[in-house]
Design a protein that fits this description.
heterodimer; A: about 450 residues; alpha/beta; Rossmann fold; 3 domains; five-stranded parallel β-sheet; four-stranded parallel β-sheet; B: about 475 residues; six-stranded mixed β-sheet; 14 strands; globular
Chain lengths: ~450, ~475
């Protein structure tokens, strides 16, 4: 396959620009989000109080339940930065002993890491005094973005909480990795769909890293047969560790995640082959595609706006890369701008393969920041923008008629988890786009007053 | 009342004394953390138009304040998408220092955003490594068109309050010396970003109406969507009046000290008397007393029906006013004053010693006005763990409410106290200030009494308290 990486993809690495308007939070947030996916745990932020807001945001992103999961903060002040915060950390851990939880993660922010607090030593020292396990996670914000933070936390979880292998394998059992590194605001719907299709194909989920994961589930990791990375933004390092330490094979590697007909078909087909369930996979595909087609036929499928519409995709790699194929093949749109705000190792190459196969030549910006996106939108003036609330407001002063709010942040309340993956997910995406499309045509003013 | 559940019960002055003497420790438990100095400093400067921040820190601090304040501005206040930019400090910057990168970032911000003002904010990383943000700001100012300011706002460097105060102090650098006084013109000071949830637009609208009602004009609301030009000429206003005494007090004092600009020291305009004080506090120094008194007379007459309702509903009752996110402590104290004005006995629940310390000047101002309400602090307030604390406090509030005859609860609808309840969260979008506020208060208290016998929702109770 001929690729045109050099010509088409113009990476915008961090070091090319000194001024950033980021789309991402830092490693502390990402690590906290990964830790908070373990049910009943306590996350103690060894940080000034402002960083605690990141932990709180992570709590929300993981859909954690405040009746069972707890967050604490050492609230470091100048004194601890000057003299060290180890005593305060130890004191706070001891104070937390009055509460009931099986596991505490100690996540560290920039301040204590720069001044050299030895949190590993503190955790080891206090551990005998308390009846919960303590896992230190060194995830200062300067170590990277939220996806790198997730990887740091996965590393700590695997190191501290998973028993060493080898263990007897449970056939057709899988570890699901990084479901939350996904800009679908209700990514839990995607995870639920994955679990549902795995069950239909005869597989079991040994453990999810992480969401609603009981601490005991982690012990099953060495018994799994394979793993699925549910993100193009984080989790690959964990998958590599699972392969290296436990011999877990990564399935569906190199495939775009299952958004749209073709991606979902490819993904389910490989799962069917891996699980010896090719026929069931084929049934799932046939039934799913029929569901989408019938829904479009019965309820109406807007086509006029989409047909060959120049389109920008601004998203994380997890949603953004598979969306390229869906909008091109299924919705007849023409991606002219693809801005990925994140993406882990392998994501740029995956995008490049997709563009080559689809014979698309959009402008591509990797590691995009808000300024770069707005500037590109202003220059290219696509007709449609599939993105977040940021792009929704960014294009307000441009002649771009259709901003569709699909990825976080969207500032729209959703109480139920709505997937983007699979067939119902595809309908959800189309529904959001159609509703935002209609928004364009709604009367904003009134020409006259009613008489009554 | 089960005294074992009560940590303090007495007048406000006694609580203040206990905090000042160290008898009550003004410290929040580990499960409760307000924003840090960086967040609040950003919140202030975010209320200036055409301002580009350059946050000298990692991306996490930046995205977080952007997600909170930038999006709120776009969604709810008609603000266009504005930048929240940073130097994205990484491990190398922490090791080698990032002053050079910061200078380049400021120049790039000028090029990218064409702002009127660039504000550098330091974060923990740059604060610890000792990057001299003020010096960089001086250097940058010579190379870019915009004014460049720097705020030392590293999160560990102070509590949330110090961020507001330091930011207000720094923006004073934009103010030109007081020369020709703009007669009949005032600044509204102490706003941030806003109006935010706690200071929503409608309260500001009422403040503006009160100002215009006496024939005065507003130069700008600092910093609630003001321009650099409004800040620049702010010292030429005839006087300052506060949006909220608590937030305006520092800037008011500083501007008075530096420019001799008078500052109307008044509380929040809750109820008739406080509103009258607010109006006269502004109008009398400007020689507008006559107009003000006429305005007050007309407005008071216009809400006569509502003040009658308030008197009838509050008279002889115990007003239990609980502090939570909404209403916050200063609003709660202002409500206590209003409840007293209309004939109730106010009891303020859960004014945390930490809050007393952080807002001491405002609380002392309140005491100086002769207000010294009864205060109850429950043990639940000091419990570790947000859920447990919340559930404990629900039980505590029910216990307190049962202990008073004729109690009326003022506060969050999240609470289920078992007595008539006024929904005084500020998120309902109904102004509480001034005469418009009186109308809403009357409506709310009537509704609270009318529907007191209706059962509360088990759905809400189970979501909030799990029982």
């Amino acid at each position: 396959m001929e690729t045109k990486t050099d010509q088409r993809i113009a990476p915008q690495p961090d070091n090319q620009s000194k001024c950033h308007d980021p789309y991402l939070r830092c490693a502390l947030y990402g690590a906290s989000a990964a830790c908070l996916g373990i049910t009943g745990c306590c996350v103690l932020s060894h940080s000034p109080q402002g960083c605690y807001q990141l932990v709180e945001a992570a709590f929300g992103w993981q859909d954690a339940d405040y009746t069972e999961t707890l967050t604490l903060c050492t609230k470091l002040c100048e004194a601890e930065i000057v003299h060290g915060g180890e005593d305060l950390l130890a004191r706070t851990i001891r104070e937390a002993a009055q509460l009931t939880f099986p596991l505490m993660f100690v996540v560290t922010a920039c301040g204590p890491e720069i001044v050299g607090d030895d949190i590993v030593a503190v955790c080891e020292e206090v551990a005998p005094e308390v009846d919960f396990q303590i896992v230190p996670v060194q995830c200062a914000g300067f170590r990277g973005d939220q996806n790198q933070g997730a990887d740091i936390a996965f590393d700590a979880i695997l190191k501290h909480l998973v028993p060493p292998g080898p263990a007897p394998r449970v056939p057709r059992s899988l570890v699901l990795v990084a479901p939350h590194a996904n800009a679908n605001p209700t990514w839990m719907g995607d995870l639920a769909w994955v679990k549902e299709v795995l069950q239909r194909l005869g597989a079991t989920v040994a453990c999810t890293l992480t969401h609603d994961t009981a601490p005991a589930d982690l012990a099953r990791i060495p018994t799994a047969e394979g793993c699925l990375v549910l993100s193009h933004d984080a989790g690959q390092k964990a998958a590599d560790t699972l392969s290296r330490e436990y011999g877990l094979e990564q399935w569906c590697r190199g495939l775009p995640l299952p958004i749209g007909f073709a991606n979902t078909r490819a993904w389910l087909t490989e799962l069917g082959q891996r699980l010896g369930a090719e026929q069931e996979a084929a049934r799932l595909i046939a039934a799913g595609e029929k569901q989408v087609i019938e829904a479009g036929r019965r309820k109406g499928l807007e086509q006029s706006a989409m047909h060959r519409a120049p389109t920008a995709i601004v998203a994380d790699a997890t949603v953004g890369i598979p969306l390229v194929r869906m909008v091109t093949e299924d919705l007849e749109m023409i991606p002219t701008l693809v801005c990925l705000r994140s993406g882990q190792v392998g994501a740029p190459e995956l995008l490049e393969r997709e563009l080559a196969e689809l014979d698309l030549q959009p402008r591509v910006i990797l590691n995009a920041d808000v300024f770069q996106v707005k500037a590109a939108l202003a220059e290219l003036r696509p007709q449609m923008v599939l993105g977040s609330n940021l792009e929704y407001h960014a294009v307000a002063e441009m002649d771009i008629p259709y901003p569709f709010r699909l990825v976080n942040p969207i500032n729209q309340f959703r109480l139920t988890d709505r997937a983007y993956w699979g067939y119902t997910g595809m309908l959800n995406l189309i529904e959001y786009m159609q509703n935002d499309w209609l928004q364009r045509w709604r009367s904003k003013g009134r020409r006259y007053h009613a008489r009554w | 009342m089960d005294e074992s559940r009560i940590a303090f019960h007495g007048p406000l002055s006694q609580l203040v004394h206990k905090v000042e003497t160290g008898e009550m420790v003004p410290k929040l438990q580990a499960s409760h953390a307000p924003p840090c100095k960086f967040w609040t400093a950003f919140q202030v400067i975010n209320g200036i138009r055409h301002m580009a921040p350059v946050i000298h820190g990692p991306k996490g601090c930046t995205y977080s304040v952007g997600a909170s304040y930038k999006m709120r501005g776009c969604e709810y206040r008609g603000v266009p998408l504005e930048p929240t930019s940073c130097t994205a400090q990484n491990e190398a910057d922490v090791v080698y220092g990032g002053e050079g990168k910061l200078l380049e970032a400021v120049k790039e911000a000028q090029h990218r955003y064409n702002p009127e003002l660039i504000v550098i904010l330091s974060c923990c990383c740059s604060g610890i490594t000792g990057d001299d943000v003020e010096k960089v700001a001086q250097m940058a100012a010579e190379e870019v068109e915009a004014r460049v300011l720097a705020i030392r706002s590293e999160g560990f460097g102070g509590d949330f309050r110090s961020g507001y105060e330091d930011a207000f102090r720094v923006i004073m650098q934009l103010m030109e010396p007081r020369r020709e006084v703009m007669k009949g013109v005032i600044n509204i000071i102490g706003a941030r970003e806003g109006p935010t949830y706690t200071e929503w637009t409608e309260d500001l609208d009422e403040i503006k109406r009160l100002v215009h009602g006496v024939g005065a004009h507003i130069n700008g609301v600092l910093c609630g969507g003001c321009t650099v030009e409004e800040i620049r000429r702010a010292a030429n206003a005839e006087m300052n009046a506060s949006w909220c005494y608590d937030w305006g007090q520092k800037l008011g004092d500083l501007m008075e000290e530096r420019f001799g600009l008078p500052y109307a020291r008044t509380g929040q305009p809750y109820g008739l008397r406080a509103t009258e004080e607010w109006i006269l506090g502004m109008a009398i120094p400007m020689g507008l007393e006559k107009q003000a008194r006429e305005f007050i007379r007309t407005e008071t007459a216009a809400v006569a029906r509502e003040t009658g309702i308030l008197r009838r509903c509050f008279e002889g009752k115990t007003a239990l006013i609980e502090i939570s996110d909404f209403p916050g402590p200063i609003r709660a104290l202002s409500m206590a004053r209003m409840a007293k004005e209309f004939g109730a006995h106010p009891v303020v629940i859960n004014l945390h010693p930490y809050t007393v310390k952080e807002r001491l000047p405002s609380i002392k101002f309140f005491l100086q006005q002769g207000e010294d309400p009864e205060v109850i602090l429950t043990q639940g307030l000091f419990a570790l763990g947000t859920f447990n604390a919340s559930a404990d406090t629900q039980g505590d509030v029910e216990m307190i409410a049962a202990d008073y005859d004729n109690a009326l609860y003022l506060g969050s609808p999240a609470r289920q106290p078992g007595v008539p309840q006024m929904n005084l969260t500020t998120q309902t979008g109904y102004p509480q200030y001034g005469y418009v506020g009186i109308r809403n208060m009357a409506r709310l208290v009537q509704s609270g009494l009318q529907h007191a016998a209706r059962p509360r929702s088990p759905l809400f109770r189970k979501v909030l308290y799990g029982d």
